[in-house]
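User: Predict the structure for this protein chain, please.
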Amino acid sequence: MIEVSYWTKIQTLGFVTIPHNVSRLLQRKEQLRILRENVMLIVRDYNNIIHTINDKEKSLFKEHLDYLDRTIEPGIRRHNWGSQADNFVYACRKECQDVFFYVKKFQNNVMKINNEFEKISTTLLTNVQKRLYILSEFIRQQEDTLKVREQDFINSFEKIARKVMKTYELFIHRSPKIQNEWLKFVHRLDESLERSLKRSVRNTLLDLGHYIVDDKQKEIVPIFKVYTILDPNHVNWKIIHDPTHEELKTRIQVFISQIIHVTRVVPRIEKVFREKRDEKIARMKKELDESERSGTNTAQAFHKAGMKPDVTYQNLSEEEKEI
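Assistant: Here is the predicted structure, written as structure tokens:
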């Protein structure tokens, strides 16, 4: 267009003669500029998705992206500068916006899940203060704290499980290959959860050790009251400690075992996901059967049940073979 505008200036000098088709093109300058801007909107929307999503997420959203490519491809082959492409632009931009919304929803849910992982990893399972404790009082207080932390773990896991199932709604209607990618994603979540739990236990044990051994001076810091008396009934006036060293050691070891085993209250995400998925699929199939028995046509029955006719809602055993 810029070149043609200059050609019109030098045409008056007789140096060039602009072809008729080029003159017509110049007359459509504003229309073509608008068309170009509309096409660039599609390009920017598409590139925004590609720049937002990482490689692992691309594997999960492969069918979404393939459908988007199929939506754009006919316009590339069919439309030219002389055709109207408004419907094409609207369809492509809507599909781009839908896919971008799904990607951001997925990423936001993953961020909230990771926040719960971070919350778990920074949780101390004890509440030890720098003062002298009676052994029984110390154990009772720390066991009470441990129960509270267990409930905190359970609450965090329930939030994680809800977010996982909410996120899975983006992929429940997809092919077995995508189900396989989803299982890999859930497996990575389980690994992150395991690391968070281990970090919480490790930090708790380190914190407990800090109250016993001073970091700077490396000296023993007493936190337990031990009563020492002489037994007059013994011939040599035997010294008696209450609690004894062995009792103190045993009770602390038992409590440390409780700290280590507190992670058992949190199941694997994959196990809970499979159970909830099976329940959801069974519920959807039941609603489909009820709709068909009530005389609803096939398309409406699938829509009412939240299912798609061209999708096989099978168990995950087939996808497991590819993991």
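The chain has twelve helices and two strands.
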